[in-house]
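Homework help board

Subject: predicted structure for assignment chain

Our instructor gave us this sequence and asked us to write out the predicted structure in token form, then describe one feature. I got the tokens but I'm not sure how to describe them. Can anyone check?
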Amino acid sequence: MEIQEKDVKVKMSICQECGNAVRVSILHTMTKESTKDFMKEVLKYNLDIKTISLENYRKGVKLGCN
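My token output:
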């Protein structure tokens, strides 16, 4: 099943201190294992999680923790 670009969601882990994205994944491509790795990192570094549209992601998300 092909998803239209307007329906693609981007899942990000966000640093609470600087507000930048630490890890970015396309939600519908995440496997059980990649979801588990994502959540391990979120818990280990106390990151926030945010899901946005691909369109909003392309408008400019700051990547990399300061």
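Reply (TA_rk): Your tokens look well-formed. For the description, you could write something like this. Residues 10-58 form one domain. That's the kind of observation they're looking for.
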